[in-house]
Amino acid sequence: MVNLAFSATRLITYEDCPFMFYKRVIKKEENGQTLPLALGSATHLAIELILKGVSKYDAVVKAFREYEIDELKIKDIMDLVDNAPYQQFMRAAIEIEKKFRLPLDETGEYEVTGVIDVADTKGYFLADWKTNRKVYTPTDTRQLALYAWALGEMQGKREILATLYFLRFYKQQRQSHLFTYWEMQEARIWALKLTKEINKKNQLIKMFEGTPYEESTLKANFPAKPSNRCSHCPFSVECFGMFSDFS
């Protein structure tokens, strides 16, 4: 059986709630596009197009049409784009939406995937656009450290300057951190550990698929973690029905 590869955001989802991860990532069950996801995706696309030479207006309109849902407004996309300091990257030697799929160990048995919003072609820095309402530092999660490790692997660098740009704020909020070699390696080891764990559990569930033990195996290996996220989770009804021991 081929091992599954995951992005940093997917691995963070697993840490937050294994059951939601299983439903969303392993089973690929989604209940359509939400406004936060549509707005975030549209904003990323608009900035990508601008950096590729498309006019701001045309880029925003195209992004709106790509992710259009009832609640999404062109003005909301434009407001976030206006808060992005894309001008400073216009003449820089960068790669936009740089995709990667890299082995996490020497055998190449386990891999990690991802997309870096802006990456220096020589591997000195990267940037990540954020459209959520909460400001945090690059070291609060392992996402940026793993991006830095990936860029370092591809460009042969042992230190990467990574910056988060929070576009919800009128005065654009920026949080930067220079990731060292050891910080990047810690992120790789974290990703490797979780990827191994998830694949082992998924293979176990597949062994009992279609048997009376399927549900109990799922509950034991991908348990729910109740939190304030439950009110927005599309799987909450099924979750509360399955996990009856919530207190």
What does this structure look like?
The protein is α/β, with parallel strands linked by helices. The protein folds into two domains: 1-28 and 91-240, Alpha-Beta Complex (Lambda Exonuclease, Chain A), CATH 3.90.320; 33-82. 45% of the residues lie in helices and 17% in strands. It contains nine helices and six strands, in the order βαααααβββαββααα. It has helices at 8-16, 18-26, 35-51, 56-66, 74-82, 143-155, 181-207, 214-221, 236-242; strands at 6-7, 94-103, 111-120, 125-130, 160-166, 173-179. Strands 1, 2, 3, 4, 5 and 6 form a six-stranded mixed beta sheet that branches. β2 (94-103) and β3 (111-120) form a beta hairpin. α3 (35-51) crosses α5. The mean pLDDT is 92.
- Mean pLDDT across every amino acid position: 92
Rg estimate, integer Å:
20 Å
Report the β-strand fraction as a percent range: 15-25%
Helix residue percentage:
40-55%
What are the segments in which pLDDT stays under 50 over at least 5 consecutive residues? Answer: none
Number of helices: 9
Please indicate the count of domains: 2
